[in-house]
Design a protein that fits this description.
The complex is a heterodimer. Chain A is mainly alpha-helical. Chain A has helices at residues 3-27, 30-46, 57-75, 87-90, 105-111, 115-126, 131-138, 142-165, and strands at residues 83-85, 96-98. Chain A folds into two domains: 1-99, Rna Polymerase Sigma Factor, Chain: A, CATH 1.10.1740; 103-166, Winged helix-like DNA-binding domain superfamily/Winged helix DNA-binding domain (Arc Repressor Mutant, subunit A, Orthogonal Bundle), CATH 1.10.10. Chain B is of the alpha+beta class. Chain B has one domain (3-240). Chain B is built from five helices and 14 strands. Chain B has helices at 4-12, 19-31, 42-56, 113-120, 230-240, and strands at 65-67, 71-73, 76-77, 83-85, 96-97, 106-110, 133-141, 146-157, 160-171, 182-184, 189-195, 201-206, 211-217, 220-226. Chain B has a nine-stranded antiparallel beta sheet with strand order 5-6-7-8-9-14-13-12-11. Chain B has a three-stranded mixed beta sheet with strand order 3-2-10, with no helix packed on it. A two-stranded antiparallel sheet of chain B has the order 1-4. In chain B, a hairpin with a 5-residue loop joins strand 11 and strand 12 (201-206). The chains are: A mainly alpha, B alpha+beta.
């Protein structure tokens, strides 16, 4: 096994699950999320020679993943799916988990946010990145991150409130 | 809301990376096939890529300039913009192919917008002031029908600096212009039409977080998006126009 392959495996082992979850909630489709995940780590592989210059690896991989998701959304004429098909994970053929099930209610609520708000909410609440780190990952000002976090939280409150009422 | 993080993590904890995906990714890095979807999704991706090309820029056999008129928000068609033109293709250095299966899309990431402009030989409407802080400059083309550029720029707008997301579409063939179609995803609503100081028609749309303007200048389609007001965005565009 080559050094680069070993390093890639290490990165996939360490950050793979987190990146897959980011892709799933960003793309709202398991298969497209898998594609985004794979493309992300292929890009990571192509840039392994830069690893020594990168001070913080997880934000760097998250940034690649988000850019990949954005590109894939556009390339595939992204449309929202109502279901997450997880046959690969469960080993069952075409067993579906719909976003309407209760245990996925937060994901469902987040999915109703605009992409801008969704990104900061995912990075902050799923990946525990600070406002400064999110600012660096998304290439936007910290003020913008704060505003989007605030708006995202308010919007989620509304969505969850409506959900409870219905 | 304090449980948001906990709940989100719990909901997503069922998802872990399948070994098969890891091995497939390793195999692709070895084979040099770096951008295809997993084998079982090849058909989906081929169809999706074709769809994406049609959606990005698709067109007519009418020579010269063509009207751009298929932008939608939530299914609502927006007013048409000025005409797009076809441009000649000049190959940039070091383009990376998306894979081997058709349609192949070539891309490259740049550090310097000037380098991109020089390589593709297009006179783009972009801020060139020294100190302009560009990030994530991404270029993509199929070499025959379209070129697409995306970048982020930290710019002084209104009372402070903000990040502007910009997209540029360039048509390379008449046959790819006619039914250019784009749907603005997210919770945008159409707000109004305006004109740039050069008289280019501008569509203004907005969401709760950002405003967005789209226009065609010299036959090239531009889209700018930032968390500022539409007026400030239009002023930003007018400042770029000489």
């Amino acid at each position: 096994m080559g050094d680069n392959e070993q390093l890639l495996r290490k990165l996939m082992n360490e950050y793979g699950d987190d990146i897959l979850r980011l892709c799933i909630i960003y793309m709202n489709d398991y298969h497209t999320a898998e594609d985004a995940w794979q493309e992300t780590f292929i890009r990571v592989y192509k840039n392994l020679n830069r690893l020594s210059e990168i001070s913080s690896i997880k934000p760097w991989i998250c940034r690649i993943a988000i850019n990949t998701c954005r590109t894939l959304q556009r390339k595939t004429a992204y449309r929202r799916y109502n279901e997450l098909i997880i046959d690969d994970i469960t080993g069952e053929t075409h067993s579906n988990i719909t976003l309407c099930e209760n245990h996925l209610s937060m994901c469902k609520a987040i999915d109703q946010l605009s992409l801008k708000l969704k990104e900061v909410i995912i990075l902050h609440y799923l990946h525990d990145f600070s406002v400064k780190e999110i600012s660096s990952i998304l290439g936007i000002g910290t003020g913008t991150v704060l505003v989007r976090l605030q708006r995202g939280r308010e919007k989620l409150k509304e969505i969850l409130k409506e959900d409870c009422a219905s | 809301m304090t449980d948001l993080s906990k709940q989100l993590k719990e909901e997503l904890s069922v998802f872990t990376v399948p070994d098969k995906l890891v091995e497939d990714t390793i195999r692709k890095t070895k084979s040099g096939s770096v951008s295809d979807a997993t084998k079982k999704h090849n058909k989906f991706f081929t169809v999706a890529a074709v769809l994406a090309l049609c959606l990005l820029i698709s067109g007519s056999a009418i020579a010269g300039v063509l009207r751009y008129q298929n932008i939608y928000i939530n299914g609502e068609a927006l007013p048409e913009l000025d005409a797009m033109k076809t441009y000649s293709y000049y190959e940039a250095d070091g383009l990376q192919p998306s894979g081997t299966a058709a349609p192949v899309i070539y891309s490259k990431e740049y550090e310097d917008i000037s380098e991109l402009i020089n390589e593709i030989h297009k006179n783009l409407l972009v801020p060139m002031a020294s100190g302009a802080e560009y990030q994530d400059i991404y270029y993509e083309t199929d070499k025959t029908d379209y070129e697409y550029i995306r970048y982020q720029l930290s710019a002084a707008i209104g009372t402070g600096r903000t990040a502007i997301e910009s997209q540029i579409f360039i048509a390379l063939s008449d046959s790819q212009i006619r039914s250019y179609s784009q749907e603005l995803l997210g919770d945008y609503t159409f707000e109004k039409e305006e004109l740039t100081k050069n008289g280019n028609k501008v569509i203004i749309a907005g969401s709760e977080a950002v405003d967005l303007i789209i226009f065609v200048a010299d036959g090239i389609l531009y889209q700018f998006e930032a968390p500022v007001s539409a007026e400030e965005l239009l002023e930003y565009v007018n400042d770029m126009i000489k």
